[in-house]
Amino acid sequence: MARPLDLLGEAIRGLRARPLRSALCAGGIALGMAAMVAVVAIPATTRQALLDELGQDGNLLTVSSGNTIDNQPAPLPAESPAMVRRIDGVLQLSATAYQSGWTARRSGLIPVADTNGLAVIAVDADLTTTLDLRVTHGRFLDAATSRYPAVVLGSGAARALGIDTTGPDRLVTLGTADGRRTVVASVLGILADASLAPELDSAVLIGTKAADARLGAHRGPSRIYVRADPDSVGPVHSLLAATTSPNDPGAVVVGRPSDLLVARLTAQSALNNLALGLGAVALLVGGVGVANAMVVSVLERRSEIGLRRALGARRGFVGSLILIESTLLCVAGAVAGGLAGLVVTWVSAVNQAAAVQVPLLPVGLGLAGSVVVGLVAGSYPALRAAHLAPAAALRIAG
């Protein structure tokens, strides 16, 4: 009776004797496993990054006023932020005011009509704290710079204006739609994509005091971002409309960005399940390739098998040898594919500035599945090798 370690050593030597074929067979399994790992790990990493930004309890609420007849954000009552701040359970609050009639251009030489769809929005310095905004270049507005014509660009606005750095020589021109009034402002900072407030991506942000002094800003905000106590999100949500606009609460729109993100993640999950199924199919296809390769290997090694049988090797030894080779191919491919999937996930996480998240259950099932595929794929070749008669095998080989 051969020892398990002897069988394993013989199987490894058999695979190393045919390196190219072994690598190609394992490659099919590796492709399927890499797809499975990447499909489950990248969305998990993205989901965790969103939850970290959103807050595990999704405690960000928004209050807006709807649109006017010309499809522009209508202002809320000027006293709305102060009233909302009095609601029990409100932790943080920041208001923004859409500057109706104002556009942003790279310079005054560009026609007024070429606005790139960018909005000019007056904001307070505490907006970054409320929304957890990340500045990729420069810095955000503060109590000092909010009084001067300095702006912070959303990620999309920066791309539209062709500005990728900040400094005193980076200027944008804010102007009215009729071209009668213009204000030249320096670019103080550039924001990363704002998942919680995508409307800011295509906006040019200016301090509230500067907007009042230079643009003649509307006194009422157009949107209020509210961070509520996680245990009080429901009660705060129910009070926001009536508190913001007591005279016309029906005109106020109260939203919860987490609902949109959860819906997006749910849709993403459905697509991930489909991709996971395709990864499983790839594993099965790889298993078929391994089975074919092992059948060919048995045919090529008939002389070796016949000689082993003639020297006293039992059928169980020969069959187990082929079965172990098949399983090793699948496991090696699965491990290589899993590592490749982790590398892809790591690259994605670096781009998102997030921590890598790898769900262990799907990955474990993928590895276990590769073992099962290897056993199934090697069953027929193992039986065929075990039932080769020694004399017949030697005669055919000769």
Q: Please give the number of β-strands.
A: 11
What are the segments in which pLDDT stays under 50 over at least 5 consecutive residues? none
* End-to-end separation: 28 Å
Question: What is the count of DSSP helices, taking H or I runs of 4+ residues?
Answer: 12
Write the H/E string, N to C.
Answer: HHEHEEEHEEHEEEHEHEHHHHH
| Averaged pLDDT | 79
Task: Tell me the β content.
Answer: 15-25%
Secondary-structure-based class equals alpha+beta
Globally, the shape reads: elongated
Main β sheet profile: 11 strands, mixed
Instruction: Return Rg in Å.
Output: 32 Å
Percent helix range = 40-55%
Q: Care to give the gist of this entry?
A:
With 398 residues, this protein is α+β, with helices and mostly antiparallel strands. It has twelve helices and eleven strands.
List descriptors.
398 residues, alpha+beta, eleven-stranded mixed sheet, 54% helix
Commentary on this structure:
By secondary structure, the protein is of the alpha+beta class. The chain contains twelve helices and eleven strands. It has helices at residues 4-16, 19-54, 80-85, 127-131, 155-161, 208-215, 233-244, 257-300, 302-310, 315-352, 360-386, 390-397, and strands at 60-64, 90-98, 102-105, 119-123, 135-138, 150-153, 167-176, 182-191, 203-207, 223-228, 253-255. Strands 1, 2, 3, 4, 5, 6, 7, 8, 9, 10 and 11 form an eleven-stranded mixed sheet that branches. The longest helix is centred in the C-terminal third of the chain and has 44 residues, at 257-300. The chain is elongated, with a radius of gyration of 32 Å.
